[in-house]
Amino acid sequence: xxxxxxxxxxxxxxxxxxxxxxxxxxxxxxxxxxxxxxxxxxxxxxxxxxxxxxxxxxxxxxxxxxxxxxxxxxxxxxxxxxxxxxxxxxxxxxxxxxxxxxxxxxxxxxxxxxxxxxxxxxxxxxxxxxxxxxxxxxxxxxxxxxxxxxxxxxxxxxxxxxxxxxxxxxxxxxxxxxxxxxxxxxxxxxxxxxxxxxxxxxxxxxxxxxxxxxxxxxxxxxxxxxxxxxxxxxxxxxxxxxxxxxxxxxxxxxxxxxxxxxxxxxxxxxxxxxxxxxxxxxxxxxxxxxxxxxxxxxxxxxxxxxxxxxxxxxxxxxxxxxxxxxxxxxxxxxxxxxxxxxxxxxxxxxxxxxxxxxxxxxxxxxxxxxxxxxxxxxxxxxxxxxxxxxxxxxxxxxxxxxxxxxxxxxxxxxxxxxxxxxxxxxxxxxxxxxxxxxxxxxxxxxxxxxxxxxxxxxxxxxxxxxxxx
Length: 469
Prior knowledge:
Blueprint: H1 17-20, H2 33-40, H3 50-54, H4 61-69, H5 73-81, H6 87-93, H7 115-129, E1 144-148, H8 152-163, E2 167-171, H9 180-183, H10 192-203, E3 208-210, H11 221-227, E4 230-233, E5 239-240, E6 253-255, H12 256-263, E7 283-287, H13 291-302, E8 307-311, H14 323-332, E9 335-337, E10 340-347, E11 353-366, E12 372-376, E13 382-385, E14 388-391, E15 395-396, H15 400-403, E16 430-432, H16 435-438, H17 443-467
Parallel strand pairs: 1-2, 1-4, 2-3, 4-16, 6-14, 7-8, 7-14, 8-9
Antiparallel strand pairs: 5-15, 10-11, 11-12, 11-13
Helix pairs in contact: 2-4, 2-7, 4-5, 4-7, 5-7, 6-7, 8-17, 12-13, 13-14
């Protein structure tokens, strides 16, 4: 008898909203073994698995899901790590609903298989087992590669190249590795112990990590090229955008980068145990509608704010944040002010933010992004009483590397120009990928670009070796 199709996914256990707003512990608690096997059993085992095509790093999704069904968890995590060095991270923060799960055949009539949650289950199972298997490395090639940035792109390209036999050194500007995984995504969404665990796995492959090392200042890219056969730039996009409205320089107005970095990387949420103070405002407005805006708003609640608003110039339908993050924010009490545009920050006589003047908007014709353009409603001005504002409207790459590297082509927003298929830049022996090329995007898209670059770097270095024999 044919198996009856199961169209309903198993829900992920998580902390109750009234409890989790009081702590920085992880909200989602993960699948139990029973839930994971039930969810995995929903997979149809398609002959042409569209989910693999939807994955930027082409994980063998049907393969690892089948391993879960059969209880072969060690084999399942091994399948994942053939393509992804950061499964515990990706299982938590990647937008599977717009990638692998979006094209799952089950999703046509019901819920797609919870691929991300199953990936997380296997990664967490491996960590709990205490036995992390390291793949077999290729023989040493004698080639050296420098990687700039220890974020998702840098870690991925370093992992792939180390497994291919190359000597790899990562140079990281901050004092901890992980990039946006460490300084940007809050503890309650991605515990830092998990990031450290994934970084240690990559170091276990023989990759060297040098922190507090600012390429472009400590040493230029050209100097690195004197020592290495190839360089990959995965420096991210850490330069925040602002609204450029009056009063934005008032005390109490933050970029999301600063706000989240102080809390996450510098452990401000654990002051005074850590010596990074965090102001505890009572009424907070977070401007923006992406995942970073949700992170900042939910962080503010946990820091003790009485009222937190998401101020977004479009409607709920246009929110770029993951639906899961929007729902979590709503459950926790974040207030959403849609079709609202800040136009002025107003302070007191001491230079501290006290109000924000806004305009109400309506949606007009679609713009270049395909979303309907927000248009101001004349005479709709109003003031919002707040004592902190966090600007979370986007980021650009830091210009330090481009301005210290002659001949490195950059785009209009300061992003390094690189080939989509190979990651090659305008400079010989220099590749780039991730947010430094695309601007702020997803973790998994950065990893996908890094994997393409790693393949091309390896091909390039292999030709050099053949030429020298």
